Amino acid sequence: MSTYSLNINGHAQSVDTDGDTPLLYVLREDLQLSGAKFGCGLGQCGACTVMVGKDAVLSCLMPVSLVGSRPVRTVEGLGSASTPGVLQRAFIDEQAAQCGYCIAGMIMRAQALLETNPHPTDEEIRRHMAINLCRCGTHMRILRAVRRAADLLHPPAKDGQR
Question: How many of the other CB atoms lie within 10 Å of CB of 41?
Answer without folding.
Answer: 14
